[in-house]
Design goal:
With 457 residues, the protein is mainly β. It has a domain of 311 residues. 4% of the residues lie in helices and 44% in strands. It is built from two helices and 27 strands. A hairpin with an 8-residue loop joins strand 23 and strand 24. The radius of gyration is 21 Å and the shape is globular.
């Protein structure tokens, strides 16, 4: 009886965080094409993207406590491999734009880079094998909706099974739209279906994923209050049909953070996700800094996993927290929980944004013959003195399962004593090897970009 009571109480506690959806109607497409950008596309050097809504709101930290990081990797050769080889590097686009917000995606033959530009997103197509430029710098020209203005923060996805490119950005703050462009063929320089989805508030910091098993294109945004999750019908977008638009807020904010975000999990590789797999979303919770949410522990922190259930017949959805995965202690207090000014750089007193609020995009998931993996990364204060390091981790569960995830491995990569490592990105290849990339900066070392390959253990 006691066991039954405990299980029932646990299920009820998770269901308390379940949220109901709002249906915002349908969107029908017009047409768009990638066209050569104006010659002055990168000429502006102003802040072009109003990122991080909520950072201006004063917040109070629950407890200013730093617990030891027991997975701190303090030596550069710790569990690394030297077998990763750089195939090519070329000058990309986005110079002179702040912030550039670079994004990119590949198919079997090309790589498409996207960045912010003087007006909206700009793009360039490269040969995947050689790095040679296939196009000039491009912008998206829409037909039939000249009054819709793209502002930037682009994300590029490739829907592999349908062989379609999906390019997204947001509109101006006044228009409050998510803009979605879906290629009508596999040719990224051909025609696109152009969709506009109007949000209740400006959809800051949009992050995107594809869920083929739920027939959904997903987006998460920061609009004040809890993060929001949006769903659009994938099969409709690919075919140029009218798509419904559904929104659900996450169950609660992480108090202390003014900027609220959650990261969608996106499937990589050739093997499909298990039957019945629903869209997943992840965020980290430092329970010493956030007094809300549960469970709490003096010896570890948490990765929250949320799940979306979509009913396209009724155009309804719910989002609920399904799991809290215990991880080693992290410290989200990097110069507080809201400051843009933290990471030192040489030759100036201007400091850089630590971006401590997000599990960084993407949150890749890959299916192997004997297990499923999810690789995640985020910034953490490694020593209690506002020095940023990169926490990386891998979650696993059996192949074919839609059940619970377990922590397989984790570490905080921060060798040395002064260098900051932050703004990471992570992915996992078909052999199980993990690649971590990140930015670095310090008072005596200019801001740069590094990578950390880890061979499959």
């Amino acid at each position: 009886m006691k066991l039954s009571y405990f299980i029932g109480a646990f299920l009820i506690s998770l269901q308390l965080y379940a949220q109901e959806s709002t249906f915002y109607g349908y969107s029908s497409p017009t047409s768009a094409h990638l066209v050569p950008a104006p010659s002055d596309i990168d000429a502006k050097k102003d802040l072009v993207v109003p990122n991080f809504k909520g950072r201006e709101i004063p917040v109070q930290i629950g407890f200013n406590t730093h617990n030891p990081d027991w997975v701190w990797q303090q030596h550069q050769n710790a569990q690394k491999t030297t077998s990763a080889t750089l195939l090519w590097q070329v000058q990309g686009i986005g110079n002179g734009i702040s912030p550039p917000d670079p994004t990119g995606e590949v198919d079997s033959t090309v790589y498409i880079q996207g960045t912010n530009a003087g007006s909206g997103g700009s793009y360039k197509i490269f040969n995947k094998t050689t790095g040679a430029g296939i196009s000039s710098t491009l912008v998206m020209a829409t037909l039939g909706s000249p009054t819709v203005t793209g502002l930037g923060d682009p994300v590029i996805l490739y829907y592999k099974s349908a062989k379609r490119w999906i390019i997204t950005q947001f509109s101006t703050t006044a228009q409050k739209k998510l803009l979605v462009y879906v290629s009508q063929t596999s040719n990224p320089q051909g025609a696109y279906y152009f969709y506009q989805f109007t949000c209740p508030s400006f959809p800051d910091y949009p992050k995107w994923s594809i869920s083929e098993t739920s027939d959904a294109l997903l987006a998460t945004t920061n609009e004040g209050g809890p993060p929001r999750v949006y769903a659009m019908k994938l099969s409709a977008l690919v075919s140029g049909a009218t798509s419904p638009f559904i929104e659900v807020p996450i169950g609660y904010t992480l108090n202390g953070f003014g900027f609220q975000t959650i990261t969608p999990v996106d499937l990589e590789g050739d093997l499909p996700s298990p039957a019945g797999q629903k869209p997943l979303f992840v965020r980290h919770r430092d329970d010493e800094k956030h007094s809300n949410g549960s469970p709490d522990s003096p010896t570890n922190d948490w990765i929250e996993i949320w799940e979306m259930t979509i009913n396209w017949t009724n155009n309804t959805a719910t989002v609920s927290k399904i799991q809290d995965v215990a991880i080693a202690e992290i410290d989200s207090d990097l110069c507080g929980l809201t400051s843009f000014s933290c990471i030192a750089q040489p030759g100036t007193t201007v400091k850089l944004d630590p971006l401590r609020e997000a599990v960084m995009y993407k949150a890749p998931m890959r299916v192997f013959t004997d297990h499923q993996s999810m690789a995640l990364c985020l910034a953490t204060d490694v020593d209690g003195n506002n020095r940023a390091g990169v926490r990386w981790l891998e979650l696993r569960r059996p192949t074919g399962s839609t059940g619970s995830w377990t922590l397989y491995q984790e570490g905080t990569y921060a060798p040395g004593s002064t260098l900051n490592r932050w703004m990471p990105a992570i992915n996992i290849d078909k052999y199980g090897n993990i690649m971590l990339a990140y930015s670095t900066s310090a008072t005596l070392k200019r801001t740069s970009f590094h990578r950390f390959p880890r061979v499959k253990p």
